[in-house]
Specification:
The protein is mostly helical. It has eleven helices and three strands. Strands 1-2-3 form a three-stranded antiparallel beta sheet.
């Protein structure tokens, strides 16, 4: 086998491939399949990277963190962080959520085109609906349409929300900065500790499991929300 130093630079090789393929007008799926077969022909397998367990904050850390959030008396930020904590929404989903996506009667938020371009429903506690309703009424009076908006009547950005959470992390003296995804990990880990099965968490987590996909598809959001509501009153925040 040739030494690595004899390889054609990637950019040059890509140009050669492009010249050969351009007449065939390839699309993304064609190229993906092409390179899959090339790897097969060359007997190349992906390097397996060791999987690291995600960092999950403890209940004590979440309580410490939320105490600082509450003491700020910034009710928009309080409501935003509670929404992340209670729903497990991804920050990319939260920034696209509209006020009309919130069903206050059912205590649910509709996520449109979440990860994998899939729609789903996430619950929030009945005890939280009054706070969330007051928040949305305030936004609506200002002419807003997104669940969380800046003073310029534009949806918060992914980066903007991360910066808000990072400020409170520093003020709380957290060893690891609290990110939206850490709040998501905390919720689902906490729900599992309460005895709720993966199959009941999955409908609103947005996760998929090949092994559990069949049973997941048979579970409704109603089943999942009942289990959620039965334990959420014990949530540390």
């Amino acid at each position: 086998m040739n030494d690595i130093t004899t390889r054609t630079p990637v950019r040059e090789k890509a140009k050669l491939f492009a010249k050969q393929l351009i007449k065939e007008n390839p699309d993304y799926n064609y190229l993906r399949e092409l390179f899959r077969h090339i790897r097969f022909e060359l007997e190349i397998t992906p390097d397996k990277q060791p999987k690291r367990l995600p960092y999950v904050p403890t209940e004590e850390e979440i309580k410490k963190y939320y105490t600082v959030v509450w003491q700020s008396r910034n009710m928009q930020n309080v409501t935003l962080i509670k929404t992340l904590l209670y729903t497990g929404m991804r920050v990319s989903e939260l920034v696209r959520t509209l006020i009309v996506d919130v069903d206050f009667d059912r205590c649910q938020i509709r996520i449109n085109q979440g990860k994998g371009k899939k729609d789903r429903i996430v619950p929030f506690p009945e005890s939280f609906k009054e706070v969330l309703l007051l928040h949305t009424q305030s936004v609506t009076k200002k002419g807003g349409k997104y669940l969380f908006e800046s003073s310029w009547k534009k949806s918060y950005t992914d980066r903007g929300i991360r910066k808000i959470l990072a400020v409170y992390s520093r003020e709380a003296g957290m060893k690891q900065s609290i990110s939206p995804h850490k709040l998501r990990h905390f919720l689902f880990t906490w729900l599992k500790k309460q005895g709720i099965e993966d199959a009941l968490i999955q409908p609103y987590s947005g996760h998929e499991s090949r092994q559990s996909l069949e049973i997941y598809s048979k579970l409704s959001i109603g089943d999942a929300q009942e289990s959620y509501e039965n334990v959420i009153h014990k949530f540390p925040v």
